[in-house]
Amino acid sequence: MIPETQTAVVEPVEPETPYAARWATPWGRLWHDVRSSPSAIIGSVILVLLILVALLAPLIAPYGVNEQVGQPLSPPSAQHLLGLDDGGYDVLSLLMWGLRVSLLVGFGATLIASTIGAAVGVYAGYFGSWTDGILMRITDYFLVVPLLPLMIVVADLWGANLLHIIVIIGVLSWTMTALVVRAQVRSIKGRVYIQRARALGARDSRIIMRHVVPQVMPLIVANTVLNIAYAIFTETALAFLGLGDPNQVSLGTMIEHAFLSAAISQNAWWAVVPPGILVAIIILACSLLGRSIEDSLNPRLRSAHLSARAFRMRRVAEDP
Amino acid sequence: MTSLLEVRDLHVWFDSSTGSEVHAVRGVNLTVQEGERVGLVGESGCGKTTTILAMMGLLPSTASAAGQVLLNGDDILATGERSVRPHRWTDIAMVFQGAMNAFNPVRRISAQIAEVLKVRGAESPREAKQRSRELLRMVGIPADRMDRFPHEFSGGMRQRAAIALALACNPKVLLADEPTTALDVMVQAQVIELLDRLCDDQQLALVLVTHDLPLVAQVCERVSVMYAGEVVESGPVDLLSQNPAHPYTRLLFASTPDVEDESELASIPGAPPMLDRAVVGCAFSPRCDRAFDRCEIEAPELRQVGPDRVAACHLNDVVPSGRSDSTAESGDLSRSTTGRDSP
Amino acid sequence: MSRGNYLIKRSVAALLTLFIALTVNFLLFRALPGSAVSDLSRVPNATPALRAELARQFGLDKPLWHQYELYLYQLLHLNLGVSYGNSAPVIDNLRTALANTIPMVALGTFFSIVLGVATGALAAWRRGTAVEHLSVAPALSFYAMPVQWLGMLLIILFGSILPTGGMVNQFLIDPTPLQHLQDVFVHMILPAATLGLVLYGQYTLIVRSAMLETLGEDYILTARATGVSQRRILRRHAFRNAMLPVISVIALSLGFIVGGAILVETVFNWPGIGLAVYEAVLKRDYPMLQGAFLVLTLSVVFFNYLADLLYFWLDPRIT
C-alpha cells in the first residue's frame, strides 16, 4: 500500500476541562460543585425543610403558641410527643413556632450584616487609599471589641424586642464579610479588563456594578450562609442572657426558660434537649452548605504528595 | 550487557474525579547505560514527567502502575513504594521541575541537605554538615550563602542547590525534569554546563526530560520521543534530528527555529487525545500530516528502523524493494492493537 | 533591616487599634444618648449626694473633651472607678474575676487545641476514608451546638458525678491550699469541657486544611524522593509547616475566648469576667461594665499582636 501524502484533517480536540462548556461561568461552576457535594446537598435539604416547617407552622403545629395545655414539665406522651415546658406549653409546637422566630432573626440580621459587609468590602477594596484606610480602622475596632458584651449593652439600653435584636445583631456582625470581600475585590481590581474599563473612562459605579459585584457574589453568598448560622446562635445567646424579646418564643428563649426554670434539676430533659438540637441542626446545615460553597470558590487543593495509602502496582490485563 | 537502568513496559493510570481512569503512561520502554545521557522529549502532558516519577515510585495514592524498573537487573518497582524506597537517592536521584520550591521554605538550605545525609548516608551531624557545604561549593554556591533560607536564593542558585541535593548520596542515575525552564537564558546555560560537568566527573547516567530540543541535542547522546503516553521514536540524537523516522519527531525538530524559542509546537495544530478512554489506531494520526487510512485503525508498534533506532509508524513499514511487512501483506487491518503486544 | 521595620509597623498598628478602642469605649459609655453614666437617673437608688459625687468623679459637669482627658489620665493610673455593685474599686473586681476566668478558660482551650490538632491532622492524613469523616463529623456537630445548651446537657449527664455550679464547694471549711486547688479543679471540669468541646471543631477544620495544603507542596515530594521515612517527613516537614498558620489562628482566637466565656460562666455560675459583665449589665453597674470592656478589648488586641509576633518569629519569609 502506498500512502498518499495528505493533509490531515485538522480537528482540534477539545482541551480537557472538568466542566462541560455550559458550566464555564463562575455561577455555573459553583452550581456544579454544590450539586455534586454531599455536604452541600444535605445542608440545603435540611435548610429547605426547616424553612418549610417554619413557614407552615401555623398550619402544622399541633398547638398554638399561647396555648397552655397542661401541667408544666409534663413528660412526653402520645398527645405531646416532646412533653410540656415550664409554662405548660407543648414543646413540639413551640419548636415550630420558635423556629419561625429564630429563622426570622437569622435571615433578617444576616441580610443587614451581609449588605453592610459587602458594601464596606467593595468600597474599601475598590477605592483603596483613604476610603480603605478609614473603613479598615472601623473594621478593626469591630474586630477587637467584645461583640457579645457590646450587643448586651446596646440591647439593654435600647430595649429588647425582635426588631431591635435583628438590627443589633445585623449591625455588629458584618466584619468577616467585609474582610473577605475586600480581599477578593482587591485581587479583581488588578485584572486587565477592569483596568481597561477604567482607562476607557467608564464610571466607577458602573464598573463596580457590572464587573466587580458579579465576581464577588458567590463569595458573598457563601459568607451569608455562614452568617445566618452565627446570627441564629447569637440570638440564642442574647435570649439566654435575658435579652430576647419577652413577647416572642424563639429557640433561644426556650433554652433560656429551660435553664431558669431548673428543668434540669427536675430531669425534664424534654424541655432542655430539643430546642438545642434544632439550633445545632440549623447551624450544622448552614455550615455544611456555606463551607461547601467556599471550597468551590477556592482553587483546587493539589493532591497530597504523601498519604497513608501508597500507589498500587498491578498486572497489565492481557488483551482479550 | 545489563543496562544500568531499564524501564520495561511501564504503565501508569490515574483515578480521575469523574470515576474513570486516565491511562497516562502506556507501555514505555527506556534503557540507560552507565554514564549515558538520554533525553526524553515531548509536549506538555505526554507523560514524560509521570514516567520518570514512576521510575522512582513517586506516584500519588490515586495512581496505579504496572511494569518493571530494572536497576542492574533487579526490579525495584516490584512491590511499589516499599521496594523502591531504599533505592531512592542512593541509586536514583531527581532534580525536579520548578526546583524553586523543592526546598522547605522555613529551613536553611545547607541544613536540609545535611539532614538527608544524616538520615540516608548515616553520617554524623558534623560530617553531614561538612559534606553538605562541600556539595554546595561543588555546584558553585558561595560559602556565605549556604546557610541562608530558600527565598534568599535566586532561581538559578536554587536550581544549583537542588542539583547538589540530588548528588548527595552518590546516585548512579540522575533524572532531571525540565531543569532549566523558568530560568533566564544566561542562567540556563550555566546550569546546563554544571550538570554536564558533574555528570562527566561522577560518571553519572542522566535522563533529561525537556521540551527544549536544542538542549537535548547539546547534552544527550540518545533521545526518546514521547507522545500521548507512549514512546514513538528512540535513538541517537543526531540521527533523529537529521533523519526522523516518525512524523511527530520530524515536526518537533523542524518547528524549532535556531533561536532558542520554546513555542516550537505552535505549528502543530490540534491537541493530544484524552487518555481517559482507549486510543484507537495511532494516537498521533489526527494531527499527522502523513496519516493514511491504516493509521486510524491500527496502532503502530515500535519497530527497529536502524541499528540502534526504533520508531512506531506505519510509514516505516513500506519498503520499496520486495521486503515487506507481513501485516501490510496480509491486509489484516482489522486486528485491533494498542501497540502493547509483544512481538 | 526590613524585619525590624515590620516589627515596628505591627507594634504601631496594635497601639493605634488599642487607642481607637479606648476612645470608642469612652464614647460608648459617656456620650451616647441614654448612656447611664451621663443619665444618672438610671443608677438605681441614686441619692442626690451620690449623683453629685458621681458627676464630680466622672467629670460630667465638664465639657466632653475634658472628660476624655480625665478618662485617659485615670486609665494610665489604672483608676477605673468604683463599682456600683460592691463599692470596691473596679480594678480589684476585675482582677479577681480575671483570675477566676483564666484557669478555666485555659483548661478548656488547651483541651480544644489538643483535640482539634489531633483530629485535624488525622483527617488530613486519612483523607477520603471513613476515618476522615469520623473525625470531622463530631467536630462540626459540637461546633454547631449552642454553648450554653451544651453546658446544660453536660449538667444533665454528669450532674451526679461532678459539681455543676460555682467555683468552690461552700461547705468545705478551712481547706488547705491543696484541698482548695483540688476543689477548684473539680469544679472547673464541666465548664472547661463545655468550652473545649464547642471550640475544638474550628481547630479541626483549620488544621485539616493547613495539613492538606502543606502535603501538596513540592518540598514534600522532594523529601519523599530522598527516601526519608514517611514518619519523619510528617513530623519534621508537613506538620511543622502546617502548624505555622494554625498557631497564628489559634492565637487570634484566644483573644475572643475570654469574652465568649460569658455563656459558660452563666450556666455554671463561675465567678469570672464573663459573669461579671453579665451581672454588671443587670445591675447597671457602668463603671464595672466599662472596665470589663476595656479588659476584654485589651485581651483581643494583645492576642492579635501576639499572633503577629509569633508568626514573625517562626516564619523566616516575613519581611
Overall mean pLDDT of chain C stands at: 84
Largest sheet of chain C: none
Q: What percentage of amino acids of chain A are in beta strands?
A: under 5%
- Calculate the terminal CA-CA distance of chain A, rounded to whole Å: 29 Å
CATH superfamily placement of chain A: MetI-like
Based on DSSP secondary structure assignment, what is the total number of beta strands of chain A? 1
The CATH architecture assignment of chain A turns out to be Orthogonal Bundle
The unreliable regions of chain C are: none
* Estimated share of beta-strand residues of chain C: under 5%
Number of helices of chain A: 11
Structural category of chain A: mainly alpha
Q: Mean of the pLDDT scores of chain A?
A: 83
Order of helices and strands of chain C: HHHHHHHHHHHH
CATH class assignment of chain A: Mainly Alpha
Describe the main β-sheet of chain A briefly: none
Oligomer: heterotrimer
**Helix percentage range of chain C:** over 70%
Structural class of chain C: mainly alpha
CATH topology of chain A: MetI-like fold
Describe this structure in words.
The complex is a heterotrimer of chains A (320), B (343) and C (319). Helices cover 65% and strands 1% of the residues of chain A. Chain A has helices at 26-35, 38-60, 91-127, 129-144, 147-158, 162-172, 175-189, 192-199, 204-240, 251-260, 269-297; one strand at residues 312-313. In chain A, helix 3 (91-127) runs parallel beside helix 7 (175-189) and helix 9 runs antiparallel to helix 11. Chain A is globular. The model of chain A is unreliable at 1-22 (pLDDT under 50). Chain B has helices at 48-55, 81-84, 109-121, 125-138, 155-167, 185-202, 213-219, 237-242, 247-254, 293-297, 326-330; strands at residues 5-15, 21-32, 37-41, 63-71, 74-75, 92-95, 173-177, 205-210, 222-227, 230-236, 303-306, 309-311. In chain B, the strands form two sheets. An eight-stranded mixed beta sheet of chain B has the order 6-7-8-3-9-10-12-11, with helices on both faces. Chain C is an all-alpha fold and 319 residues long. Chain C has helices at 2-30, 48-57, 64-76, 90-125, 130-144, 147-158, 177-215, 218-225, 230-260, 262-268, 273-282, 286-314. Chain C starts with a helix and ends in a 5-residue tail after the last helix. Classes of the chains: A mainly alpha (320), B alpha/beta (343), C mainly alpha (319).
